[in-house]
Amino acid sequence: xxxxxxxxxxxxxxxxxxxxxxxxxxxxxxxxxxxxxxxxxxxxxxxxxxxxxxxxxxxxxxxxx
Length: 65
Description:
Blueprint: E1 2-7, H1 14-27, E2 32-36, E3 41-46, H2 50-59
Antiparallel strand pairs: 1-3, 2-3
């Protein structure tokens, strides 16, 4: 498992946080995502590579800063 902390400037609401979680779990269904739209922070625990997670989030409209 890898723990990744990302800043997602475009994640601004609860719906965004759900979309972020969905994008990550589409790549890794067992991933744990703690997404906080107030701070634009996402903490992800996953077996997926960080580069793949960043790409999935970018495709979903939430490119990491």
